[in-house]
Amino acid sequence: MKIAHFLSALGLLLTQNLYSQAPVSAEKHQLSIRKAKELIRLDGTLDESAWQEAQIAKDFFQNFPADTSLGNLKSEIRVTFDQNFLYIGAVLYQAQADYITTSLKRDFQSGTSDVFAVNIDPFSDKLNGFHFAVSPFNVQREGLIDNGANLTTDWDNKWYSEIQNHTDHWVVEIAIPFKTLRYRQTSGQNAWRINFVRFGLKQNEASTWAPVPRAFLPVNLAFTGALIWEDAPPQPGANVSFIPYVIGRTEKDFEFKIPTENKLNIGGDAKIAITPSLNLDLTLNPDFSQVDVDRQITNLSRFELFFPERRQFFLENEDLFGRFGFPDTRPFFSRRVGLTNGSIRKVTTEGDTVSVTRNLNVPIKAGMRLSGKLDKNWRIGLLNMQTGQVSALNQGPANYTTAVVQRKMFERSAFSAVFVNKENFSVNDQEKIQHNAGAYNRVAGLEYNLFSKDNKWEGEFYYHRSFSGKQKNDDAQSAAAFLGYFTQKWNVFSGIQYVGRDYRAEVGFVPRAGQFSMFNSTRYNIYPKKESWAKKVNVSGFNFDNNVTYNAPGYNLTDRSHQLGYFMEFPGNSSLELQVGQDYTYLFFPFDPTNSGGETLPEGAEFTYHTANLSYTSDFRKPFSYEINVGTGQYFNGNIFRVNGELVYRLQPYGVFALTYAYNDIHLPSPYNSASFWLIGPRTELSFSRSLFFSTFLQYNTQVNNVNINSRLQWRFRPVSDLFLVYTDNYFTDQFFQGPLVKNRALVLKMTYWLNL
């Protein structure tokens, strides 16, 4: 699609967005809240007079599998507050015998448990909000909502809930400290946006108080009701928290006979509310030993693979820093800070110097993040991190800065500016740190994110430019446009992207520079009309994806992909999908398709190949469920067969036993390598209570000749305060069943404590 088409469509959408927003108090779905005159005791009984006098939100509307009737699960919601807490009380009708949950572990995934949830938008901007959810077993989940519909559950904070279970219903009582929320008290009547959500897995139903069309998820803030404060919420006060940690660590490298290293360390974080809606986070000598290990995948790509961030400090308000650009052109990617993959020199006990290629931790000395709202329309973000030197990598310290300003426009859109800077330092012969004036990398950019009032139109348009010292900057720019239209029947989007050959984002994720690409996707949903079919099939339909990539500046075709599929989705998150495709690849550099170090296909070679894939996911509501994906077809100048998936057994409510698997069998003609790769990952996650959890994850990966074992015991002894015991082991796969040969192992004991001032 040409840029002119995008600009024309953008003009129409901007005009559409100019219609004024109706006041929150004029919403059809309204719920009044008044201050409680007596102490609310959190016990799950709703027997205080404030609950009896409160207005009731009921008559929930179905969101899934249909959106044309009231929900089958009845709900009655009340709200009240006092000087310290916002209270939510709910009577939720559901037979106790029908409860489904994965485990008692906090922050459970969506779709894995029966749940009652509340989405709160204190600034009524329909873009940013808070999410609190609880299961019938009183397992909690909290998260932040950004971009109107994206939920991240990596945010942790204090709130409280109690539940009483009865034969045909359960009652939940929630207390959310006003210090946990970010809002402003205004003169006159205060009004927030709010919605309540029910998920019943056995009933195959999602329902909401304010109706949400089934084309959108219930978390979507475009579809919310009004919370009208008859009495103003309390004026937000000071909010300061310290989260210190202490850690003991012992580790040994058996592969290179490195002596055992024992370490004791301390550090911590601080959270300071500069204003009720603007937060300052500080970290000193941070440690992330308790973070889950990366889920490995077999790498058959010509380019770098993306692994998500899992470290808590970088995850809160991630949308302000890490969502600029497209998924393959992020100017800021937090894993570039404090993590690297490189060859490190070590000295063995025999005095030999060896080089080891590993995922390595670069020490972070300190960092700060200022993020939040200045008012209803303006958001800002400022992140600065300082790393230390790694002598074995011959790597000096570095400073990382990301600055963001965002302005809400029209109903739900936003215009943003971003600046990312990396400054490198070196260590001279006198062990003094000195600044390298020319060793820097910077990216500056502008971006417009479009969300229409009815949420049917979505778009993203950006322009970024990089500046690098001692490197060419002739074509150091990246620009793109994306526009999507989403309705109940049609999901259609299209985009174009340009990445200059000199574009460098050292703190970002840009696996491929020097390219111009176009992509299109169309999905058509067919909903059954007959009631007999609707009980068996939620939705079926077709999808078509098309991607074309040219090199830049030559504009010669390098990659093309066409994928046509048919899908069916059934109750219980069960699904079936068949997909056929055609791919074309032109090699601009030599490449071994097995990534196993064999003979490479020559530069200039081109290939057209056809593939077919079949996938099935079983009913998650049953104690045993599984997923299987099978693919076969041509692969460069040979053939490939692959199968992957997962087996899961749910021992309700104590946890899951799972096994992920992936097998790739590649056959290429001589003299090129043929290879078979196994990736097997058994996983156990157990919840002994709502505060004691144990998990073990093993990854057997023949492509990288490594077996990784990661075990973690977590005891949450107070709200947001934890004790972790983490054990990590690495072995060689080629000797694992012949008497395992250990590469390295480590044992970590860490305690964190959340202290409010």
What can you see in these coordinates?
The chain has 757 residues and is mostly beta strands. Among the domains are: 22-229, Immunoglobulin-like; 313-513, Porin. The chain is 4% helix and 53% strand. It has five helices and 40 strands. The strands form four sheets. It has a 24-stranded antiparallel beta barrel. Strand 33 (638-651) and strand 34 form a beta hairpin. It is globular. It starts with a helix and ends with a strand. Mean pLDDT is 89; it is low at 1-22.
Architecture of the domain at 22-229, CATH level 2?
Answer: Sandwich
Q: CATH topology of the domain at 22-229, what is it called? A: Immunoglobulin-like
Protein structure class: mainly beta
Helical fraction: under 10%
Strand content: over 45%
Distance between the termini: 56 Å
Largest sheet: 24 strands, antiparallel, barrel
Radius of gyration, in Å, reads 27 Å
What is the approximate shape? globular
Please give the number of β-strands. Answer: 40
GO molecular function: carbohydrate binding; hydrolase activity, hydrolyzing O-glycosyl compounds
Domain DUF5916: 240-662
InterPro entries: Carb-bd_dom_fam9, DUF5916
Organism: Haliscomenobacter hydrossis (strain ATCC 27775 / DSM 1100 / LMG 10767 / O)
